[in-house]
């Protein structure tokens, strides 16, 4: 393989910030990853990150939107959701007690993903969750 050729494939989807778009994001992820043993985890992660964008940022306002990127390589599946910003706080994992009704979403994402990264910019935040496809002991994901 040429040194500048990649076997990674990347897809993108932009959605208006309506709650029903979360199911569209799930379906889109499921369709792309059909047959992958990580498809269900990826679908759940995209659902949580999309819902967070709508509920906790300007993405859920009248003219808001959120954007998904899905990158697949032989080593990793990377799922990113970018919101429209508009809040003073960045997403973070919170450790809630079992009776809590809110604040568990990113904890669940962190439990499913091998790595979660939050990147903030002037236009919003991107939360990326990575699922390594080869998790055997001693295997290198990238």
From TrEMBL:
Domain Histidine kinase/HSP90-like ATPase: 19-129
Cited Gene3D superfamilies: Histidine kinase-like ATPase, C-terminal domain
SUPFAM superfamilies: ATPase domain of HSP90 chaperone/DNA topoisomerase II/histidine kinase
One matching Pfam family: HATPase_c_2
The entry's keywords: ATP-binding, Kinase, Nucleotide-binding, Serine/threonine-protein kinase, Transferase
Entry GO MF terms: ATP binding
Record carries keyword Transferase: yes
The name this protein goes by in its record: ATP-binding protein
């Amino acid at each position: 393989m040429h040194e500048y050729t990649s076997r990674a494939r990347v897809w993108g989807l932009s959605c208006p910030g309506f709650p029903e778009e979360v199911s569209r994001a799930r379906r889109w992820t499921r369709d792309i990853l059909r047959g992958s043993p990580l498809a269900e985890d990826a679908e759940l992660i995209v659902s949580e990150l999309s819902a967070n964008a709508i509920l906790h940022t300007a993405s859920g306002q009248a003219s808001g939107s959120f954007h998904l990127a899905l990158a697949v390589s032989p080593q990793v599946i990377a799922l990113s959701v970018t919101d429209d910003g508009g809040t003073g706080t960045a997403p973070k994992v919170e450790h809630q007690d079992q009776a809590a009704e809110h604040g568990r979403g990113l904890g669940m994402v962190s439990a499913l993903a091998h790595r979660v990264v939050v990147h903030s910019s002037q236009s919003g935040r991107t939360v990326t969750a990575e699922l390594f496809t080869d998790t055997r002991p001693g295997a290198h994901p990238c």
